[in-house]
Amino acid sequence: MGNGNVFKRVEMKYLLEKEEMDALMEYMRDKMCPDPHGDATIRNIYYDTDSFLLVRRSIEKPAYKEKLRVRSYTASSMEDPVFVELKKKCKKVVYKRRIHIPQEQAIRFLAGEDLTQDELSDSRGKSKPADAQIAREIKYFRNMYKTLKPVVYLSYDRQAYYGKDDDSFRMTFDTNICYRKERLNLSEEPGGISLIDPGQALLEVKISGGMPMWLSAYLSDKKLFKASFSKYGAAYKDMLKKGEIKIGNI
User: Fold this and answer.
1) Architecture of domain 6-249
2) pLDDT (0 to 100) of residue 91
3) Concatenated DSSP letters for the chain?
4) Domain locations in the chain?
5) Can you tell me whether residue 217 is helix, strand or coil?
6) By Cβ atoms counted within 10 A, which residue in 29, 98, 113, 225 is the most buried?
7) pLDDT below 50 — which residues of the chain?
8) To the nearest 10°, the Cα dihedral for 210, 38, 3, 8?
9) What share of the chain is helix, strand, coil (3-state, %, to 5)?
10) For residues 206 and 168, what is the distance between their CA atoms, to the nearest angstrom?
11) What is the pLDDT of residue 247?
C-alpha cells in the first residue's frame, strides 16, 4: 500500500440517515472488510489564520484548497504520537501528507519551532527521509500563513472498511460529528456542538481509481446523491451564524 503517510485519492461524501447506513452496511458485507483499526473516535485540531483564511477559501469551492490539522485516533497525552496532516485538494483529487510525532512536538512545530533530526528519526535513531521532506512542506506552509493557530477541536466516531478485492478502496461512516472552540488539545475528551442530526452518518468513499460498479449501482438505485459537506467548514458556518465570528473582523 506504499507510504502510509502519503495519500492521493478522490473522496466523495454522502449524508445518510441511520436506516440508509444500516442497509448499505448489510449490502456491502461480502464486499468490504472492517479495518482492524477503523472503529475509533477521531480527534482533530484544525489550524487557521487570524482571519480564518483557509476555511473561507475552502467553502468558496475553488479548484485548489488546503487545510492543516493535528489528528489522533485515541486519547493522546502530550507525550503520545499524533499526526500532523497537510491536506490539499486540486480538481477533486485529494492529496494528504503527514508526519507522526508526539503531541507536544507537534504543538511547538506548528507554533514556529523547527523539528530536529532526532525528532524525525525512529526509535532506533534511524533517519526517515520521507518524513523529513513532509516536515519541510508543512514548515513552508506554516511560514507562508504567518498567523496559523489552533481554532477548532473537531471529533467524530468512525467505522472504516476496505475493499476485499482492492485494499486502497475505502469507505468510512462518521457519526456524532461535534466541534468546540475551547480545550484545543488532543488530551481532552471528545465532544461539543453537533454538526449533524442524531442518527445521521457521513459516508466518505475514497478511491484511487474508479468506483466499483456494485457501489455505483447501489447508490443510483437507492437515490443516494453526493453531498457537499466539510466538517471544518460546517463548524465555521455555525460559529459565524451564532455571531462568534464577526465578518467585519475577517
Assistant:
1) Alpha-Beta Barrel (3.20)
2) 86
3) ---TTEEEEEEEEEEE-HHHHHHHHHHTTTTEEE-TT-SEEEEEEEEE-TT-HHHHHHHT--SEEEEEEEEESS---TTSEEEEEEEEEETTEEEEEEEEEEHHHHHHHHHTPPPPTGGGB-TTS-B-HHHHHHHHHHHHHHHHSTT-EEEEEEEEEEEEEEESS-TT-EEEEEEEEEEESS--STTSPP--EESS-TT-EEEEEEESSPPPHHHHHHHHHTT-------HHHHHHHHHHHTTSS-GGG-
4) 6-249
5) helix
6) 98
7) 1-2, 123-125, 249-250
8) 30
9) 25, 35, 35
10) 8
11) 62
* Res 45: pLDDT: 98
Residue recorded with cell 507562508:
144
